[in-house]
Amino acid sequence: MKVYLYAKSGHAIGLDATRRCAAIAKLLQEKDCDPILCTCDFRAGVYAKEELGIKKYVSVDVLSNLPNIMQRGDILIYDTDEASDFMQTHMKDFCTLLYKIPEDIPYTITHNDFFKKQEKHTIEKLFFFGDDDYDNRLLKLCENSEKQNISLLWGHYFFLGNEEKLVQYFNEILNEESYIDSIRSTKYLLSGSLNACIESIKCGGSPVLLRRDDKEYDENLIKKLKLPTVKADSFEDMIKKFETIIEEYPTINFIDNFDINLIINEIFVKLEAYKKLTNNI
Asked: What are phi and psi of 155, to 5 degrees?
C-alpha cells in the first residue's frame, strides 16, 4: 500500500496545487512515510524536489491515468478539478482512503518550515502575478504604463525573453528560486495567486489578491478571510488601487483551525494495518 498525491500543474495552470500537495507530502515524510507526488508537468515535480523537499515524484498527464501506476487499495490525496462524479465514485472504490483538496483538506494548508510568522519583513511591496502567464497577460497589462514603485517576483512558467520587456516597469525582478524567501519577507504582497496570499498571511504579511480574468477563485474563502481584492485594466490603475488598500489595510480574519494530523494519523493506521496483514501472509 502506497500514498500518492496528485497536483494539477503546468505552464497554463501554475504551481499552487503542487505547493499545497508538497506541504502535505513533506509532513508525511517527517512521519517516516514515503509518499509519491504526481504532477501533470515534469518541471513541477523537479521544482517540488529541489525547492520543497519532496523525495519522490512522477509525471502523470491527467488524473484518469493514475490507475496505471497505482495499485488497488492505495491511498490518494488530490488537488484538481478534473474529477467528474463518476470518476470520484470509481476512485473511492479503488482507494483505501481518498482525500480531496479543498473539500477534505483546505486550501490554507502550508508547511511551517517554509511559511510561518516573521518578526521582520525586509521587502515593503512585491507583485507576484502567478507562476503562469501563457497568454502574456502581464506584459499586455504593463504596456504603455509608467514604471511603478514595486518589485516583481518572476513566475516559474514565464516565457524566456519577457524579463527584458518587463524590467522597465518595476524596481527590480526577483528570480523564481527566491519564491519562498520573497513571500515570507514581504510586508505588502499583490498577487494573482490566492495560494500566495495565504502563504503571505501565514508569514504575517498583508496581501491583496489581484483578480485575474483567466482564473477562478474560491469566493467563500476570500470572504471568510476578508481578503482585499483588486481588478484593473492597466498596470498603473492596479498599483493605484493596491496603494489605496494598503494605506488602511483591513484586519484579516484568518482562523487556521484545521488539524492535518487527524488525516495523517488515519493514513498511518491504514498503513500499519496493511503491514501487519501482509507480514502474516
From this structure: -85, 145
| Closest to 149 in 3D by CA, of 180, 188, 200, 119 | 188
Nearest to 211 by CA among 254, 176, 253, 242: 242
Question: What are the cell numbers at 185?
Answer: 519577507
For residues 108 and 19, give the distance between their C-alpha atoms in angstroms, rounded to a whole number.
11
DSSP 8-state assignment for residue 156: T
- Give this prediction's pTM: 0.95
Q: From CA 196, how far away is CA 154, in angstroms rounded?
A: 13
Give me the phi and psi of 77, to 5 degrees please.
-120, 125
Alpha carbon distances (Å) from 91 to 60, 83, 169, 174, 271: 16, 9, 47, 41, 18
Reported as a single tens digit per residue, the pLDDT across 139-186 is 999 998 999 999 999 999 999 999 999 999 999 999 999 999 999 999
